[in-house]
Each structure stands twice: as structure tokens, then as C-alpha cells.
């Protein structure tokens, strides 16, 4: 974390489309895990986090379109209205693509601070749609964005580690 | 690296802002169409078939945990439970005898009255596949769908009372809205005196509210509320809730009445889906109502 720039310039395997798709699928599955009671409010949004990761690191591969499609899948699984998650994820991806150059310059701690408002915005979009249609908002829902933001650093480290080549290229 | 990609010689399509606007409009259109009309149910059930295996896969760890939990039970607990169940069985058997006699008598009376409503309904057992993740609305997903002839509108209950209503059906799944869902109304009757009322969900799984009851209405704590069967969705006589708290404040026109659901709305794993509900005759058209009003007025004028 001390030298984010040099770390970012380390040699990473080119992200294959399969790897991106698998990571998004895994995030969807994590989102579908049953959460109960008090934990339901703290539930982080893994799909949003993985989308953010790819929007920052591969903005020309994963963008607003992919985010929207993931949102549609999330909508069907949650039985929410068509487009509710899609709308939130599209806004999230847009914000992230606008900021991706800045994000790449920051270390993980500062990235977390930049990402929290983005997540909050996407949560707010979801809650606003719900409020418009049903007339009330469960405020506990916003706790999820805090937990998600805290999970940003571990998730980035994990995905970066998965993209490292098996053998060390510096050996040569 | 990404830095080299920032020199773009090729057109990469529309700018992010244009894309955002496009997808925002698309989402809003979908939201509008889905909220107002029922056109998208086909697409929804198509996608649900695609993701059904994944949903089952995600439910596996929870199921394994439950199974392991059930397997590792203390022997003492088993002995105690067994004794308790035996005693319960004895009591139930005695009650069942009574019930059979009552049922026979009831059938006879119904035949005499030529009542078209049937006393018991065909049921099928369904298991909860997974519960709603969304904190806003607690819905359930059952493992029976159109393949098992489940229809939207059918009533879901457990062994003690009504749990909810099937609101959406997929090929192998059905979605249940709970009676405790925010503003979900159920027409009920007080068992003690037959008073008709409507009980509303409060969004909390342990509470229902009886609204629009005048302060003077004859209702007491501990009263049992059963479905009245007036709406044609819920069959008559099924237990819904028990009145738990009444507040009669003369400053308000209506009493504040809270009830607790009888059924284990958030506890059970297996539920019953009632099918073959009685068909009520169609509600007369509004035009016909006006016509009768007119004829009544006409009659009144004559004398």
C-alpha cells in the first residue's frame, strides 16, 4: 500500500473475459446468500464492488452496459422491479468511469474514501426508486454501503492477487 | 497497461455520458412498464429459469448447516421431545375424534343449507427455497411453480394459520407475499361475534394492525381473527391473527388495535399451498348498480 503507483505498474496477467465473467458471477452468488435478521441490514453489495473494481482497472471492458445487465440479473433474483438495480448499477459505473484515472493514482485507503460516496449514491438511487413506488424507506438499508466500502480494500487485494502470474517475472 | 490505452486512435463508441443517459432511460422505461403493466412477466420467468440452478446452489451451504444441526442433537433432548410429542399426540388424537364427529355434522348441515362453499380444500406441501434478501419486503420463494399447477392468488398456510398469498409464479418457483407485508390487507371476522374487519400488515413479521375500527367496536384482547372469505381470495374460516393490544384514545376516531399472526410467518420451512378455492360469482358491473339505483328512485317516486 505504501507505493500504490509502483504496485499498480507491477506485471498483471491480462484479464481474460472469462475471468471477468467468473468474478461477476461469484459476486452475484455471494449476493444471493441468505442473510437474516440484523445481518440483513449489514449485507454488503458484492456485485457493486466487483463492478467498481473492473470499471477502475478495465474501464473499456466493463462499463455502464455490463453494469446494467448485472443489474437486470439482480432484479430478477430479488423479485424487485425490472430496472431498479440496473438503474443503481448504471449510475455507479458511470461515476466510476468518470473517476477511474484519479482512482488509479490513489492508494487503497484513499480509494475507499472515494468509493464510499459512489456506493452511497447508488444505494440512494435504489432507495429513491423504492420510495417513489412504495412510499417508504428502510434507513437500515444504507448501512450496507458502509460495509461495502470497508470491504473494498480486501476485495481489491484479492482480485489483484488472482491476476498475478504464477511465477515471478522479476526472477529473469 | 491501461496508460497506453489512453491514446485512442479508434473511436470507442459513444461517450460515457451518452451511454449513461441511454441506460438511465432504458431503466426508467422498464421500471415504468413493470410497475404499471404485466408485460414483462414472460421475460422475468425466462431469466428466472436461467438462474434457478444458481439459486439452488447458493442455498446448499445453508441446507447443509441445517442438516448438520439436525444431526447433532443431544440424546436427552430427543428423549424429552419424544415424551412431549407422545403426550401431544394423545391429546390431538382425542381432539381429532371430536373433530371428525363435528365435521360429519357440519357436512350434513351444509348439505341441508345447500351451501356451495366446500369445507376443505386440496393442498400441496411446498418447501421454502430461500427467503427474500431485500430488507424492504420479506417475501418467500417456494419450490412449487407452474409445473405443479400453482397459480398466482392461491393461499399459503402452515399448520396453524395463514402465512400469505402466492403473488408470482415461475416454472419451478413461486413467490409468496406474507400477510405481514407492509399494507397487505386480509378481510377477517372476529371469531367470537362475527364482526367484520380488515387486517393490514405492518412490515414487521410479528405484527398486524386492525385499522378503521371505531372506538366503540366490540373487540377484546385475545380475540381470534379468522378470514371472512368475502374477497374470494382467502377461503373463509382460516385463522389469521390474535388481538394482542388495544388502545382506545377518544381523541382519535379509530381504535389502535395490534394483532400477532397465528401462523409462524418467519419460522416454518414447509408450507401448504391451498388450491381449488371456491369460485365466487362475478361482482356486478357498476353500470348495473346505477340501473338499480335508478329503478329504486323510480319506485320511491311512485307513491
Explain what you see.
The complex is a heterodimer of chains A (172) and B (303). With 172 residues, chain A is mainly alpha-helical. Chain A has a single domain, classed as Arp2/3 complex 21 kDa subunit ARPC3, CATH 1.10.1760. In chain A, 70% of the residues lie in helices and 0% in strands. Chain A has helices at 4-8, 17-32, 38-42, 46-57, 64-78, 84-105, 108-134, 143-150, 152-162. In chain A, helix 2 (17-32) packs antiparallel against helix 4 (46-57), helix 4 (46-57) packs across helix 6 and helix 7 runs antiparallel to helix 8. The model of chain A is unreliable at 1-6 (pLDDT under 50). Chain B is α+β, with helices and mostly antiparallel strands. Chain B has a domain at 118-278: Beta Barrel (Thrombin, subunit H), CATH 2.40.10. Chain B is 37% helix and 22% strand. Chain B has helices spanning 2-5, 16-36, 41-71, 75-113, 286-301, and strands at residues 123-131, 139-142, 155-157, 162-169, 174-178, 185-190, 196-201, 208-210, 224-227, 239-247, 256-261, 270-274. In chain B, the strands form 2 sheets. In chain B, strands 1-2-5-4-3-12 form a 6-stranded antiparallel barrel. Chain B has a 6-stranded antiparallel barrel with strand order 6-7-8-11-10-9. The radius of gyration of chain B is 26 Å and the shape is globular. The model of chain B is unreliable at 114-119 and 291-303 (pLDDT under 50). The chains are: A mainly alpha (172), B alpha+beta (303).
